[in-house]
Protein backbone atom coordinates (compact mmCIF):
# COMPACT_ATOMS: atom_id res chain seq x y z
CA UNK A 1 0.00 0.00 0.00
CA UNK A 2 1.36 3.41 -0.86
CA UNK A 3 0.17 6.97 -0.73
CA UNK A 4 0.76 9.14 -3.74
CA UNK A 5 1.01 12.90 -3.82
CA UNK A 6 -2.61 13.27 -4.94
CA UNK A 7 -3.74 11.62 -1.68
CA UNK A 8 -1.92 14.25 0.35
CA UNK A 9 -3.19 17.06 -1.91
CA UNK A 10 -6.68 15.88 -0.97
CA UNK A 11 -5.78 16.21 2.72
CA UNK A 12 -4.51 19.75 2.08
CA UNK A 13 -7.96 20.74 0.85
CA UNK A 14 -9.92 19.27 3.74
CA UNK A 15 -11.81 21.57 6.11
CA UNK A 16 -10.05 22.05 9.44
CA UNK A 17 -10.55 18.98 11.55
CA UNK A 18 -8.44 17.56 14.33
CA UNK A 19 -8.87 14.58 16.61
CA UNK A 20 -7.31 14.95 20.02
CA UNK A 21 -7.00 11.39 21.19
CA UNK A 22 -4.38 8.76 21.87
CA UNK A 23 -4.25 6.24 19.04
CA UNK A 24 -2.96 2.81 20.07
CA UNK A 25 -1.65 0.48 17.41
CA UNK A 26 -0.64 -3.17 18.08
CA UNK A 27 2.36 -2.95 15.73
CA UNK A 28 3.89 -0.28 17.97
CA UNK A 29 3.60 -2.23 21.22
CA UNK A 30 7.30 -2.97 21.42
CA UNK A 31 8.61 0.12 19.70
CA UNK A 32 12.19 0.99 20.60
CA UNK A 33 13.52 4.52 20.44
CA UNK A 34 16.76 6.19 21.43
CA UNK A 35 15.76 8.81 23.98
CA UNK A 36 19.05 10.23 25.16
CA UNK A 37 22.13 9.29 23.22
CA UNK A 38 22.78 5.58 23.63
CA UNK A 39 19.99 4.88 26.16
CA UNK A 40 17.40 2.62 24.52
CA UNK A 41 13.96 2.53 26.14
CA UNK A 42 11.15 0.10 25.29
CA UNK A 43 7.66 1.60 25.28
CA UNK A 44 4.20 0.16 24.84
CA UNK A 45 2.49 2.77 22.70
CA UNK A 46 2.85 5.94 20.72
CA UNK A 47 0.46 8.85 20.96
CA UNK A 48 0.25 10.89 17.77
CA UNK A 49 -0.98 14.41 18.42
CA UNK A 50 -0.57 16.25 15.11
CA UNK A 51 0.47 15.57 11.52
CA UNK A 52 1.01 17.95 8.64
CA UNK A 53 2.32 17.40 5.11
CA UNK A 54 4.21 20.03 3.10
CA UNK A 55 5.15 19.65 -0.58
CA UNK A 56 8.76 20.66 -1.28
CA UNK A 57 9.21 20.12 -5.00
CA UNK A 58 12.30 22.08 -6.04
CA UNK A 59 11.30 21.67 -9.69
CA UNK A 60 8.65 24.28 -8.91
CA UNK A 61 9.22 27.91 -8.05
CA UNK A 62 7.76 27.67 -4.59
CA UNK A 63 6.72 25.09 -1.98
CA UNK A 64 3.10 24.11 -1.35
CA UNK A 65 2.46 24.44 2.38
CA UNK A 66 -0.60 22.89 3.98
CA UNK A 67 -2.79 25.51 5.63
CA UNK A 68 -4.46 23.05 7.98
CA UNK A 69 -3.24 19.98 9.82
CA UNK A 70 -3.94 16.54 8.39
CA UNK A 71 -6.92 14.60 9.63
CA UNK A 72 -5.81 11.72 11.84
CA UNK A 73 -7.56 8.84 10.09
CA UNK A 74 -6.51 5.19 10.35
CA UNK A 75 -4.65 5.14 7.02
CA UNK A 76 -2.32 8.05 7.69
CA UNK A 77 -1.80 6.89 11.29
CA UNK A 78 -0.72 3.45 10.05
CA UNK A 79 1.48 4.94 7.31
CA UNK A 80 3.27 7.35 9.64
CA UNK A 81 3.36 4.93 12.56
CA UNK A 82 4.99 2.14 10.60
CA UNK A 83 7.61 4.50 9.23
CA UNK A 84 8.44 5.72 12.73
CA UNK A 85 8.70 2.10 13.87
CA UNK A 86 11.20 1.33 11.06
CA UNK A 87 13.20 4.50 11.72
CA UNK A 88 13.80 3.97 15.43
CA UNK A 89 14.80 0.33 14.83
CA UNK A 90 17.30 1.22 12.09
CA UNK A 91 21.01 0.79 12.86
CA UNK A 92 21.80 3.69 10.52
CA UNK A 93 20.18 6.09 13.00
CA UNK A 94 22.70 8.59 14.39
CA UNK A 95 22.43 10.60 17.60
CA UNK A 96 23.12 14.31 17.15
CA UNK A 97 23.27 17.68 18.92
CA UNK A 98 22.29 21.16 17.74
CA UNK A 99 25.53 23.16 17.47
CA UNK A 100 24.64 26.78 16.82
CA UNK A 101 23.15 29.17 19.36
CA UNK A 102 21.28 31.01 16.63
CA UNK A 103 19.67 27.85 15.26
CA UNK A 104 16.31 28.41 13.60
CA UNK A 105 15.16 24.78 13.67
CA UNK A 106 16.01 24.42 17.37
CA UNK A 107 14.26 27.74 18.16
CA UNK A 108 11.12 26.52 16.39
CA UNK A 109 11.29 23.22 18.29
CA UNK A 110 11.57 25.09 21.60
CA UNK A 111 8.49 27.14 20.76
CA UNK A 112 6.51 24.05 19.69
CA UNK A 113 7.45 22.31 22.97
CA UNK A 114 6.01 25.24 24.96
CA UNK A 115 3.06 25.91 22.68
CA UNK A 116 1.76 22.94 20.66
CA UNK A 117 -0.59 25.20 18.70
CA UNK A 118 2.52 26.71 17.07
CA UNK A 119 3.07 23.34 15.36
CA UNK A 120 1.55 24.29 11.99
CA UNK A 121 3.27 27.69 11.75
CA UNK A 122 6.55 26.21 13.00
CA UNK A 123 6.56 23.42 10.44
CA UNK A 124 5.87 25.92 7.64
CA UNK A 125 8.88 27.95 8.80
CA UNK A 126 11.07 24.81 8.89
CA UNK A 127 9.75 23.74 5.49
CA UNK A 128 10.67 27.16 4.11
CA UNK A 129 14.26 26.80 5.39
CA UNK A 130 14.56 23.34 3.86
CA UNK A 131 13.00 24.35 0.52
CA UNK A 132 15.44 27.25 0.05
CA UNK A 133 18.36 24.83 0.52
CA UNK A 134 16.78 22.38 -1.94
CA UNK A 135 15.96 25.04 -4.53
CA UNK A 136 19.54 26.34 -4.56
CA UNK A 137 20.96 22.81 -4.85
CA UNK A 138 19.24 20.87 -7.62
CA UNK A 139 20.97 17.58 -6.73
CA UNK A 140 18.78 17.33 -3.60
CA UNK A 141 15.68 15.34 -4.60
CA UNK A 142 12.18 16.83 -4.35
CA UNK A 143 9.94 15.43 -1.63
CA UNK A 144 6.86 15.63 0.51
CA UNK A 145 7.84 16.29 4.12
CA UNK A 146 5.70 14.94 6.94
CA UNK A 147 5.98 16.62 10.34
CA UNK A 148 4.62 14.61 13.27
CA UNK A 149 4.09 15.68 16.87
CA UNK A 150 3.90 12.60 19.10
CA UNK A 151 4.79 11.39 22.56
CA UNK A 152 6.21 8.19 23.98
CA UNK A 153 5.94 7.58 27.72
CA UNK A 154 4.93 11.22 28.27
CA UNK A 155 7.99 12.55 26.39
CA UNK A 156 7.08 14.73 23.40
CA UNK A 157 8.89 14.35 20.06
CA UNK A 158 8.87 16.07 16.71
CA UNK A 159 9.38 13.79 13.72
CA UNK A 160 10.55 15.13 10.35
CA UNK A 161 10.20 12.59 7.53
CA UNK A 162 11.46 13.69 4.10
CA UNK A 163 9.77 11.37 1.62
CA UNK A 164 11.81 11.70 -1.57
CA UNK A 165 9.82 11.10 -4.73
CA UNK A 166 10.16 7.80 -6.56
CA UNK A 167 9.03 6.76 -10.02
CA UNK A 168 6.30 4.17 -10.41
CA UNK A 169 3.84 3.06 -13.06
CA UNK A 170 0.05 2.90 -12.99
CA UNK A 171 -2.62 2.08 -15.50
CA UNK A 172 -4.50 4.92 -17.15
CA UNK A 173 -7.97 4.70 -18.71
CA UNK A 174 -8.81 7.09 -21.53
CA UNK A 175 -12.08 7.33 -23.41
CA UNK A 176 -11.70 8.32 -27.05
CA UNK A 177 -14.03 8.47 -30.06
CA UNK A 178 -12.66 5.08 -31.13
CA UNK A 179 -13.29 3.55 -27.70
CA UNK A 180 -11.58 2.97 -24.34
CA UNK A 181 -7.77 2.85 -24.31
CA UNK A 182 -5.97 1.28 -21.34
CA UNK A 183 -2.34 2.35 -21.09
CA UNK A 184 0.59 2.54 -18.66
CA UNK A 185 1.82 5.92 -17.42
CA UNK A 186 4.73 6.95 -15.22
CA UNK A 187 4.09 8.63 -11.87
CA UNK A 188 7.04 10.84 -10.92
CA UNK A 189 5.88 11.87 -7.45
CA UNK A 190 5.23 8.52 -5.78
CA UNK A 191 6.10 8.36 -2.08
CA UNK A 192 7.91 5.47 -0.37
CA UNK A 193 5.46 2.68 0.39
CA UNK A 194 4.63 1.62 3.93
CA UNK A 195 7.33 -1.07 3.78
CA UNK A 196 10.09 1.03 2.20
CA UNK A 197 12.81 2.98 3.96
CA UNK A 198 12.64 6.76 4.30
CA UNK A 199 15.88 8.26 2.93
CA UNK A 200 16.12 11.26 5.27
CA UNK A 201 14.52 11.91 8.64
CA UNK A 202 15.00 13.33 12.13
CA UNK A 203 13.33 12.66 15.47
CA UNK A 204 13.78 15.50 17.97
CA UNK A 205 13.24 15.15 21.72
CA UNK A 206 11.24 18.25 22.74
CA UNK A 207 12.42 18.05 26.36
CA UNK A 208 16.22 18.06 26.03
CA UNK A 209 16.37 18.79 22.25
CA UNK A 210 18.63 15.86 21.52
CA UNK A 211 17.93 14.36 18.14
CA UNK A 212 18.38 11.22 16.09
CA UNK A 213 18.58 11.14 12.32
CA UNK A 214 19.68 9.39 9.22
CA UNK A 215 20.49 11.03 5.94
CA UNK A 216 22.18 10.72 2.57
CA UNK A 217 25.02 12.64 0.96
CA UNK A 218 24.27 14.86 -2.03
CA UNK A 219 26.45 16.95 -4.31
CA UNK A 220 26.61 20.52 -2.97
CA UNK A 221 29.08 22.87 -4.71
CA UNK A 222 30.96 19.91 -6.24
CA UNK A 223 31.30 18.15 -2.89
CA UNK A 224 29.16 15.35 -1.50
CA UNK A 225 27.98 16.32 1.97
CA UNK A 226 25.28 15.55 4.53
CA UNK A 227 23.28 18.72 3.88
CA UNK A 228 20.33 17.58 6.04
CA UNK A 229 22.37 17.83 9.25
CA UNK A 230 24.93 20.47 8.28
CA UNK A 231 22.74 22.98 6.40
CA UNK A 232 19.16 22.34 7.54
CA UNK A 233 19.27 21.05 11.13
CA UNK A 234 22.73 22.55 11.82
CA UNK A 235 23.75 19.78 14.16
CA UNK A 236 26.75 17.56 14.76
CA UNK A 237 26.14 13.83 14.61
CA UNK A 238 27.93 10.76 15.88
CA UNK A 239 28.82 7.81 13.68
CA UNK A 240 25.94 5.35 13.38
CA UNK A 241 26.34 1.71 14.37
CA UNK A 242 26.27 0.63 10.72
CA UNK A 243 29.01 3.13 9.86
CA UNK A 244 31.15 1.99 12.81
CA UNK A 245 30.88 -1.64 11.73
CA UNK A 246 31.79 -0.71 8.14
CA UNK A 247 34.84 1.27 9.31
CA UNK A 248 35.93 -1.55 11.61
CA UNK A 249 35.58 -4.29 8.97
CA UNK A 250 37.30 -2.21 6.30
CA UNK A 251 40.19 -1.34 8.64
CA UNK A 252 40.55 -4.98 9.71
CA UNK A 253 40.57 -6.20 6.10
CA UNK A 254 43.23 -3.66 5.15
CA UNK A 255 45.38 -4.61 8.15
CA UNK A 256 45.09 -8.31 7.28
CA UNK A 257 46.02 -7.67 3.64
CA UNK A 258 48.99 -5.50 4.64
CA UNK A 259 50.55 -7.88 7.16
CA UNK A 260 49.30 -11.30 6.05
CA UNK A 261 48.86 -11.01 2.28
CA UNK A 262 45.10 -11.70 2.38
CA UNK A 263 45.53 -14.90 4.41
CA UNK A 264 41.90 -16.11 4.86
CA UNK A 265 42.80 -18.01 8.02
CA UNK A 266 44.05 -14.88 9.81
CA UNK A 267 41.05 -12.86 8.64
CA UNK A 268 38.74 -15.63 9.84
CA UNK A 269 40.54 -15.70 13.20
CA UNK A 270 39.83 -11.99 13.61
CA UNK A 271 36.15 -12.50 12.75
CA UNK A 272 35.98 -15.42 15.16
CA UNK A 273 37.47 -13.26 17.94
CA UNK A 274 34.91 -10.53 17.13
CA UNK A 275 31.99 -13.00 17.44
CA UNK A 276 33.36 -14.26 20.77
CA UNK A 277 33.74 -10.68 22.02
CA UNK A 278 30.13 -9.87 21.08
CA UNK A 279 28.81 -13.05 22.72
CA UNK A 280 30.69 -12.31 25.94
CA UNK A 281 30.40 -8.51 26.15
CA UNK A 282 27.60 -7.59 23.70
CA UNK A 283 30.21 -5.38 22.07
CA UNK A 284 33.28 -5.51 19.85
CA UNK A 285 36.10 -4.96 22.33
CA UNK A 286 38.94 -3.93 20.00
CA UNK A 287 41.67 -4.63 22.56
CA UNK A 288 40.26 -8.07 23.42
CA UNK A 289 40.06 -8.95 19.71
CA UNK A 290 43.69 -7.90 19.21
CA UNK A 291 44.79 -9.80 22.31
CA UNK A 292 43.01 -12.97 21.15
CA UNK A 293 44.42 -12.94 17.60
CA UNK A 294 47.89 -11.53 18.19
CA UNK A 295 48.65 -12.93 21.65
CA UNK A 296 52.09 -14.13 20.48
CA UNK A 297 53.04 -10.77 18.98
CA UNK A 298 52.54 -7.76 21.33
CA UNK A 299 53.85 -5.31 18.73
CA UNK A 300 51.36 -6.47 16.10
CA UNK A 301 48.60 -6.35 18.69
CA UNK A 302 49.35 -2.68 19.44
CA UNK A 303 49.65 -1.81 15.76
CA UNK A 304 46.23 -3.34 15.08
CA UNK A 305 44.61 -1.33 17.88
CA UNK A 306 46.22 1.88 16.60
CA UNK A 307 45.23 1.05 13.00
CA UNK A 308 41.55 0.66 13.94
CA UNK A 309 41.66 3.90 15.96
CA UNK A 310 43.22 5.85 13.08
CA UNK A 311 40.48 4.53 10.78
CA UNK A 312 37.91 6.37 12.92
CA UNK A 313 36.95 4.06 15.80
CA UNK A 314 37.90 6.10 18.86
CA UNK A 315 36.04 4.12 21.52
CA UNK A 316 37.51 0.96 23.03
CA UNK A 317 34.37 -1.06 22.34
CA UNK A 318 31.45 -0.91 19.90
CA UNK A 319 28.14 -1.99 21.48
CA UNK A 320 26.31 -4.51 19.25
CA UNK A 321 22.71 -5.47 20.04
CA UNK A 322 21.65 -6.59 16.58
CA UNK A 323 22.21 -10.24 15.62
CA UNK A 324 21.72 -9.39 11.94
CA UNK A 325 24.90 -7.29 12.00
CA UNK A 326 26.84 -10.21 13.48
CA UNK A 327 25.48 -12.70 10.93
CA UNK A 328 26.07 -10.39 7.98
CA UNK A 329 29.60 -9.24 8.84
CA UNK A 330 31.34 -11.72 11.11
CA UNK A 331 29.98 -15.27 11.23
CA UNK A 332 31.28 -16.40 7.83
CA UNK A 333 34.51 -16.05 5.89
CA UNK A 334 34.54 -16.36 2.10
CA UNK A 335 37.48 -17.93 0.28
CA UNK A 336 38.04 -17.27 -3.41
CA UNK A 337 40.70 -19.25 -5.31
CA UNK A 338 42.58 -18.26 -8.47
CA UNK A 339 40.73 -21.09 -10.21
CA UNK A 340 37.39 -19.38 -9.69
CA UNK A 341 36.12 -21.48 -6.77
CA UNK A 342 34.34 -19.63 -3.94
CA UNK A 343 33.64 -21.18 -0.55
CA UNK A 344 31.82 -19.55 2.37
CA UNK A 345 32.60 -21.16 5.73
CA UNK A 346 31.61 -20.51 9.35
CA UNK A 347 34.53 -18.75 11.06
CA UNK A 348 34.59 -21.32 13.88
CA UNK A 349 35.73 -23.96 11.35
CA UNK A 350 39.07 -22.22 10.86
CA UNK A 351 41.77 -23.70 13.03
CA UNK A 352 39.67 -26.83 13.55
CA UNK A 353 41.29 -29.63 11.53
CA UNK A 354 38.28 -31.84 12.16
CA UNK A 355 36.23 -29.47 9.98
CA UNK A 356 38.62 -27.99 7.38
CA UNK A 357 42.27 -28.42 6.48
CA UNK A 358 44.52 -26.37 4.22
CA UNK A 359 47.17 -28.64 2.70
CA UNK A 360 50.27 -27.23 1.00
CA UNK A 361 51.28 -29.55 -1.82
CA UNK A 362 54.83 -30.29 -2.99
CA UNK A 363 54.37 -28.16 -6.12
CA UNK A 364 53.37 -25.12 -4.03
CA UNK A 365 49.63 -25.33 -4.73
CA UNK A 366 47.08 -25.51 -1.93
CA UNK A 367 44.36 -28.11 -1.43
CA UNK A 368 41.32 -27.43 0.78
CA UNK A 369 39.90 -30.47 2.54
CA UNK A 370 36.41 -30.03 4.00
CA UNK A 371 35.56 -32.80 6.46
CA UNK A 372 32.66 -34.27 8.41
CA UNK A 373 30.03 -33.60 5.71
CA UNK A 374 26.79 -35.56 6.07
CA UNK A 375 24.79 -34.07 3.20
CA UNK A 376 25.28 -31.71 0.26
CA UNK A 377 22.40 -29.63 -1.06
CA UNK A 378 22.16 -27.43 -4.14
CA UNK A 379 21.34 -23.75 -3.73
CA UNK A 380 19.95 -21.95 -6.74
Unreliable residue runs: 1-44
Strand order of the largest sheet: 3-5-6-9-10-4-13
Helix fraction, binned, reads 25-40%
| Distance linking N and C termini | 30 Å
Number of helices: 10
Secondary structural class = alpha+beta
Give the strand content.
25-35%
The H/E string reads HEEEHEHHEEEEEEEEHEHHEHHEHEEEE
Shape: globular
Name the assembly state: single chain
Rounded mean pLDDT score? 81
* Total beta-strand segments: 19
Let me know the largest β-sheet: 7 strands, antiparallel
Radius of gyration: 26 Å
Written overview of the protein:
Helix content is 33%, strand content 30%. With 380 residues, it is of the alpha+beta class. The strands form seven sheets. A seven-stranded antiparallel sheet has the order 3-5-6-9-10-4-13, with helices on both faces. A two-stranded antiparallel ribbon has the order 1-2. The chain has a two-stranded antiparallel ribbon with strand order 7-8. β11 (218-220) and β12 form a beta hairpin. α3 (104-114) packs antiparallel against α4 and α7 (264-281) packs across α8. The longest helix is centred in the middle third of the chain and has 20 residues, at 241-260. It is globular, with a radius of gyration of 26 Å.
Give a topology summary.
Blueprint lengths: L4 H8 L19 E5 L2 E4 L4 E10 L17 H15 L5 E5 L5 H11 L4 H18 L6 E10 L2 E10 L1 E11 L2 E12 L9 E6 L4 E5 L3 E3 L2 E3 L1 H7 L1 E3 L3 H20 L3 H18 L1 E3 H8 L4 H14 L5 E3 L3 H7 L2 E5 L5 E5 L9 E5 L5 E5 L10
Amino acid sequence: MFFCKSFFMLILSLHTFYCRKVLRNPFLDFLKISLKGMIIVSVENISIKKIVVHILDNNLQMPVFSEVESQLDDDIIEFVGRHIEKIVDDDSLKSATFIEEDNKVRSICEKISKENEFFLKGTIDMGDVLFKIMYENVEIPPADVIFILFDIDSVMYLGILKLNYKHSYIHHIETTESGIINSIVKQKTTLPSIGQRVDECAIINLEDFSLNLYEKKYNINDEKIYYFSSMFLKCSSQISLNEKVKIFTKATKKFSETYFDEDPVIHAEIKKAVVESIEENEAIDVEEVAKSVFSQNPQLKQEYIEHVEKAGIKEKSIPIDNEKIVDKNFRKQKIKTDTGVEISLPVEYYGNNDKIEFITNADGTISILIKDIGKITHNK
